[in-house]
Fold each of these.
Amino acid sequence: MKIIKPSARIVSSVDGDEILKRIEEYGRVCYKSEDRITEDSAKRFVENLIKRGHESVLEHISVTVKFVCDRGVSHEIVRHRLASYSQESTRFCNYSQDKFDGELTFILPPWIPESEAQLILRGELPLCKYQHAIAPNSFELHDQLIDKLPTSYGWYVAMLCTEAAYKLSIADAGWTPEQARAVLPNSLKTELIMTANLREWRHFFKLRTSNAAHPQMRELTVPLLGEFKEKIPVVFDDIKVEE
């Protein structure tokens, strides 16, 4: 079993200055003001487009991002319909094979305390210390010992059980990967490629960086918005992240 943290990054080639010039070139067709294009006019033109709400021009430029996240978060991401997606398939990926090192990979939830998170990431959560708290052949905890367990213990054991059930389903029951995936949880790692135009990315970030978004979504989108702002001037500057 592997435990990793999520990530998101722009994978397409992005030249922010060139993007602004292209947006200006396309947008000025609407006003037939191409004669007003200068070496440094793009920034102000794009700022004015966004202020006026003339965002349809932004749809001419697309950016591709690779997400490494859990399945629950991916289900929310693909709800954005004005985008193209390619996602790791649990139907066709057999995680018991050598190419996956014969194990499942799970995403560490951000609400697990950092001290325990580091133990989990290093594979050092002291399970053996608590083995006496588990009844034989089950994972039922004795009530008097629950308070002594790490807060992440239940999640960690659930992932261990999931991996065991998945492998047994394939190796012993002869299930195919698309059948065995019935036991896989939201915490399973998935890789997702998303391509969307700049207008849709603006909509995406307005929804997915707000305080109302799921904590695991914000864990991805807040840093990703920072990368968009760094690489593409102006277009995302008005989107503020709530504390």
Amino acid sequence: MPGLFDILVAGEINPDLIFSGNVLPDFGQVEKLVTSYTLAVGSSSAIFACGAARLGLRVAFIGVCGQDVFGRFMLDEMQKRNIDVSNVIIRADGQTGLSVILNQDADRAILTHLGLMAELRASDIPDDLLRQARHLHVASYFLQTKLQPDLPTLFQHAHSLGLTTSLDTNYDPSEKWIGFDKLLSATDIFLPNKTEALSITQSDDIESAAKQLANKSKIVAIKLGADGAVLQTKDKRIYMPSIPVDIVDTIGAGDSFDAGFLYGYLNGWELEKSLQLAAVCGAFSTQASGGTAAQPELDAALAFVK
């Protein structure tokens, strides 16, 4: 097995400050009380990295953060989870990104300060680091604006060095959903949710969207929330139900799903088994506040995998 790492994550760094309570914000200096708060590992990329490491994959992370309390928190939390952060770029003159989240039942509202989240560039990722990994994963495509222009070339270069690639775009704040053809053709595994898949393809149904996307990426695994997931290749479609759980917080469920799928993929599992592990990991992660607190270890997840 070549390299030191199973997965290199090139991503954004920000914690989540999560408030929970059955209230809605109101201007006019109206003060409302929430039930609880949590400062947790945030950012799709970091939550994914934590989930992959918890399953037992060897994970390295590269991104940009500030030399501030939120940056130190994120690096400390990732290191506690055995993620190599030695390649993270720390800028003393910048602010680490931050998301403030209000949870209300199964829904949430999010306010995000990008800070340094968009600063990573493809040129910041050296060949020496790529050669140490088997796989390159990128999430939060729409927030990583300086990585976007050269990402297709980076994925193609990663392929030339023997890596496979995966992408989870997350939501597009501009709602334009454009500029994907070249990137998707260089993506081995595309991991959108239902809203993202329908928006990118301008489709009305998930079957059509899955088929369109699979004409570009080799494997497309679409997250359907409580309805489970669907996987599409050029010649195969697999549906996978979710497992019933008591939902506390859906933050990071999609990232935990991604971690489960890539664990199976990188260990040579059949696609159906990989998809089932992904669905289990996504469901497990909703059972506690924050994106990482309920991510399962491999043995616990495998108890629900046929």
Amino acid sequence: MDQGARGGSIVVTGGAGALGSALARKLVAGGHRVAIVGRPGDGATLRALEAELGAACAGVGADVANETSWGAALAEIEARVGPPAGAALIAGGWSGGGPLHAEGGGAAYRAMIEKNLDTAHASLQALLPGMVARKAGSVVLVGSRVAVRPELGAGAAAYAASKAAAVALAQAAAAEVLPHGVRVNAVLPSTIDTEANRRAMPDADPTRWVPLGSLAGVIAFLLSDEARDISGAAIPVYGRA
């Protein structure tokens, strides 16, 4: 991790999901202390990950789109595994949708903004002040290829817009905190090879998708001191798609 990270923790939001848990395992295996942040309803999964990964892992329940919830989560994280020196903002999701002209009521749009933009905004606001004060830190946000190829989001325009906005937010924040020794980057995966995606798209070819281990490796690299000269980047991780 960045200089100073040895005494702190790495926060993984969306930690109860497939990518979050894969990244947590990789980080703990590399000798890092990790705070896996999941939704309040993810308690059983968080406890199972704690049991698997041991004292280096703290499972924390929080609504990461809510600033008040972040305050309590940060206090727990610092007490259990140390102040955040890095973070992977994986929390987000896709709630379906349809052509924009055919959608009614705006429910899909509001859901995507909350899941993908509000979570990024609240997480950055919660985590960056401490990193700036400590003059060290690295944050990686998980975006999507549709952030830079919005035409691929046809039929899910709200999702594409929310991911594009989240990546823009991260890149603007990166410029703000770089003078303070803090880096912010984004990764832009295509379809990730998860069990859920295989069930949802049984006719697709998952060998063209991005394996969990591959994406976790890119995120871990961006969190590390080896990537100390990279900030404000949006890294494509497209697999063979």
Amino acid sequence: MHGREKVEGHPLRSPLGKNAHFQPALMHPAIFVSLSVVLGLLFALQDWMNLRAWGYHVSTPILLESWGMEYFLWGALCWLLWWGLRTQIQKVRVSCIITRVLPLSILTSIVEEMIWVVCFPNLPLNRPHMEYWHRLAFHLRAEFFDNMVIFWCAFALFRGIDYYQKYREKEDAAAQLEVQLANAQISALRMQLNPHFLFNTMNSISSLMRSDVDAADTMLEQLGSLLRITLERGESQFIPLRDEVEFIEMYLAMQDKRYGSRVQQFVTVDAELHDALVPAMILQPIVENAYAHGLSRLDNGGLLVIEAHREGDRVRLSVLNSGNGLKADPAERIPGQGVGLANIKSRLKLHYGMDHTFLIREVGRNRVQVAITFPLQMSQNHTQQITRFGAGDRT
């Protein structure tokens, strides 16, 4: 009885093709060879069950040793091929496969069999003793085809690893391009927003120069403080809510100088949200819009309410203002048509994809509310992830 009775035509399924990465953990020599041995032991178990079903009785240790040693040798030889010829295997063309890899597969199959025959001088069982070369010829006749199958399965695995690596590299490159595009778009929006804010503020100061020079002077000082804060933030896209509130309170102080007692201002922020990350300058364009299209048209009794609340795992920001309502001036009141609101919508989409809401509506007679919700993310001092698509940020 041949010492490695195998079922002809049994498919060889390598456990190494799963989760191959670069350098794949499964291609570590210890792991690769160990898994090869485990595969051999599984074949030994299958062989033992088949022999029992056919009425043969073969020593279990002999089956385990012979199968285990065979796949140990194949694991070691295949890993050496991977280690020494990885680049060539991955780049080899069809012509080279026929002229080089095919002879290599034959040579490797013979070498493996030669080593295995040395390890088991008493096999095959139940046959007269044979010299080494006779035993080698006997085993080659029985095992050569199976050896070739093992070699080409390993070769296919190595080629598959190469294709998967190229696929992952393309995915990574595409992801990096997507991140770079998102960052470029966000930066462009920030560049659009800052001059817009500066232009409108300078107009406000200019309008005060003829009526209240002291107020205009104070507004210039406050504008300088706001610009300093903006420069210190650099290119950061996300900041803690407390910093955004500090910025908006300075902006409200400027507006208070301009409009005097015509507008009552209220700011309410949940204490637990002070460290929540929000897009930089997310509130200022909304507040500016509230003044430009609502509060500036009132002679007195204006109301501005800014709120930040937590709703489960989300943040809700809202700005409510009195004025003439959305329908008072359709040409100007169409939601999102202004630079500021359109800018916010675009930035929210880039930061959160579809996982945000932006709503502008009338909530009472001549009262307009802008409400935004987005996922809650807390500041962790230094590096923060800005967008759902992988862009990074510094806070």
